[in-house]
Design a protein that fits this description.
218 residues, globular, binds NADP nicotinamide-adenine-dinucleotide phosphate
């Protein structure tokens, strides 16, 4: 199968790429950093349209995202840009799977609204969640759409919690009450979603760490 994964230069997208490459699939990787198949900024509409024109993936993983950046940037990248890619690939693909990497922030479970930046993150992820639902209901193609909503994962985006670089050793405490999942946990969930029988659509799935009542694992 052919996968197209945005935000695959690091973090969750990179782990997904390694997994599906190891399974023998082709993966088109996308990001601004070096080393990806298609290097560019997804806020550039021409770049986005170029991807949609060039590729018809079996699986599109709508993963690129930012946090702790200016209000409109977060709303744009995680919301408008992600929804634009979603609706364009939905029409282009005709069949297969689209998985939108959302957040537990959608239900504000496991995420605290601390400031305007976190508010725009939540708004953007809610937009993506609702867009997934609209396409599932519209059902105008054979593409299965999933909103995968995840809690904290140890990636480079983790520094959003305090807007500064956080040492790995401090991370458990710094994420307030949740020990971050591993990227492998998200990979496992995505793998499960796409391996469901043809007659099943996983519309939304939420995963988070199971935290002890004390709020800390150690
Ligand atoms: N980690 C968590 O705790 C967590 C929790 C819930 C949801 N999520 C979601 O999971 C997804 C992946 O996050 P992550 O934790 O893996 O973060 P990450 O390690 O920071 O990776 C983010 C990826 O998005 C790409 N990206 C960001 N802005 C871009 C742009 N304008 N154009 C092209 N690529 C862009 C980055 O590539 P370049 O820097 O190379 O451009 C990078 O590959 C995001 O949608 C995030 O909201 C993460």
């Amino acid at each position: 199968m052919l996968f197209l994964i945005t935000g695959s230069s690091k973090g969750i997208g990179k782990a997904l790429t390694e997994h599906f490459n190891n399974e023998g699939h082709g993966v088109i990787t996308v990001g601004r950093s070096e080393g990806v198949t298609e290097r560019g900024d997804l806020t550039d509409e021409k770049f986005r349209n170029g991807l949609v024109e060039k590729y018809e993936p079996d699986v599109f993983i709508n993963n690129a995202g930012i946090a702790q950046e200016p209000f409109l940037d977060v709303l744009n990248v995680n919301g408008m840009v992600a929804v634009d890619l979603l609706q364009k690939f939905y029409q282009k693909m005709k069949k297969g799977n689209i998985i939108n990497i959302g957040s537990l922030a959608t239900t504000q479970n496991g995420y605290q609204v601390k400031d305007l930046s976190s508010a725009s993150y939540i708004l953007a992820k809610q937009l993506l969640h609702n867009a997934s639902y609209f396409l599932q209901e519209m059902h105008s193609t054979e593409v299965k759409v999933t909103s995968l909503e995840i809690g904290a994962v140890a990636t480079t985006i983790k520094n959003r919690f305090f807007g500064k670089k956080i040492a790995e050793s401090e991370y458990t405490e710094q994420t307030l009450r949740s020990v971050p999942m591993k990227t492998a946990d998200v990979v496992q969930a995505v793998d499960w979603i796409i391996k469901q029988p043809q007659h099943l659509e996983v519309r939304s799935l939420q995963i988070n760490n199971f935290v002890k009542p004390s709020g800390k694992l150690k």
